[in-house]
């Protein structure tokens, strides 16, 4: 990596944050792979959000105006069907990225969940 192209960014979850040094020309997918290692989560489950927009894997960080000093938020994508095992147990700090409006309906087992609706 060319050192003049290196940027320092913060990646935040609901509970923690980590510092990363990456090339500004890196793709979102490349950043996801680094984030996945640090947060011990498969990269295909990660959703990166910057300036209120979900970053697409094939785009570069520079295309979205990502530069040194900024924060990128990360959530873990979970299909509601995967959460059925949680019913009756507390679900703390679970973030669901949903494509259907019905996914956000309030029920007791979803009380502590944060839902982000994705529009295509």
Automatic annotation (TrEMBL):
<dbReference type="InterPro" id="IPR019956">
    <property type="entry name" value="Ubiquitin_dom"/>
</dbReference>
<dbReference type="InterPro" id="IPR029071">
    <property type="entry name" value="Ubiquitin-like_domsf"/>
</dbReference>
<dbReference type="GO" id="GO:0005829">
    <property type="term" value="C:cytosol"/>
</dbReference>
<dbReference type="InterPro" id="IPR015496">
    <property type="entry name" value="Ubiquilin"/>
</dbReference>
<dbReference type="Pfam" id="PF00240">
    <property type="entry name" value="ubiquitin"/>
</dbReference>
<dbReference type="GO" id="GO:0031593">
    <property type="term" value="F:polyubiquitin modification-dependent protein binding"/>
</dbReference>
<dbReference type="GO" id="GO:0006511">
    <property type="term" value="P:ubiquitin-dependent protein catabolic process"/>
</dbReference>
<keyword id="KW-0963">Cytoplasm</keyword>
<dbReference type="InterPro" id="IPR000626">
    <property type="entry name" value="Ubiquitin-like_dom"/>
</dbReference>
<feature type="domain" description="Ubiquitin-like">
    <location>
        <begin position="7"/>
        <end position="77"/>
    </location>
</feature>
<protein>
    <recommendedName>
        <fullName>Ubiquitin-like domain-containing protein</fullName>
    </recommendedName>
</protein>
